[in-house]
Amino acid sequence: MSPRPQSESVVFEGKASVIAREIRQAILSGEYPEGTSLRQRDLAAHFGVSPTPVREALSRLQAEGYVETRLHQGSVVRGLQDRMSENWQLRMVLEGLATELATARIDAAGLKAIRDRAEAFAVAAPRDWEQSNRDFHFEIYRHAESPVLLRFLSELFQTLDVAPTSKREHGVSVREHDDIIDAIARGDGAAARKAIESHVGGTAPQR
């Protein structure tokens, strides 16, 4: 990232939040590749701030899995494969939980909305598959009625912009979506959870 003066967004949004966002974007874009050392003093000079908000920003990024602390190196950018493997493990757990909760709380209108999303994915053009698939998933998760869980899942999905492309055929995803819906419609939370965990696990990156 090229040096820049401290902007108004840094002042009003919160220094640590802005710094974390910009470093995160630099990591996702490849500007900071795996193994890059993120030195607090250099970053503080770059953003025109004291080391304190930089330290807080790096702590947030470590909690999100983007950086790790290494002996004698400080904060270092983690590898994509490590981040993605961890992402999928968390997704399987959280999406399973959200689906089970949604099954217990959803009404007829909600079930129809999920079916509509599934049908939209089934007929979508290839260029729209990714967004349509996300729409289907989050139509389920919002019926879990858990804002915190929904926020965690949204943050996990943000990292999929750099994920390896799924090799699963579109028709397979369509059938798996139908299996998930069938379990939800039956009110079988355990089966719905198992179905979506299998669905998510089927696209996990391989080491």
Notes on the structure:
By secondary structure, the chain is mainly alpha-helical. The protein has two domains: 64 residues, Winged helix-like DNA-binding domain superfamily/Winged helix DNA-binding domain (Arc Repressor Mutant, subunit A); 123 residues, Four Helix Bundle (Hemerythrin (Met), subunit A) (Up-down Bundle). Helix content is 68%, strand content 5%. The protein contains ten helices and three strands. Strands 1-3-2 form a three-stranded antiparallel beta sheet. The radius of gyration is 20 Å and the shape is elongated.
Shape: elongated
Main β-sheet description: 3 strands, antiparallel
Average predicted confidence as pLDDT: 86
Helix content: 55-70%
For the termini, the CA-CA separation is 30 Å
Q: Could you state the CATH homologous superfamily of the largest domain?
A: GntR ligand-binding domain-like
With helices defined by DSSP (H or I, 4 residues minimum), what is the helix count?
Answer: 10
Number of strands: 3
What radius of gyration results from the CA coordinates?
A: 20 Å
* Strand and helix order: HHEHHEEHHHHHH
Number of domains: 2
Low-confidence stretches: 2-12
Report the CATH C-level class of the largest domain. Mainly Alpha
Pfam families: FCD, GntR
Domain HTH gntR-type: 13-80
Protein name: HTH gntR-type domain-containing protein
Keywords: DNA-binding, Transcription, Transcription regulation
Relevant terms:
207 residues, mainly alpha, Arc Repressor Mutant, subunit A, Four Helix Bundle (Hemerythrin (Met), subunit A), 2 domains, 3-stranded antiparallel beta sheet, 10 helices, disordered N terminus, WH_DNA-bd_sf, GntR_C, transcription regulation, DNA-binding transcription factor activity, HTH gntR-type domain-containing protein
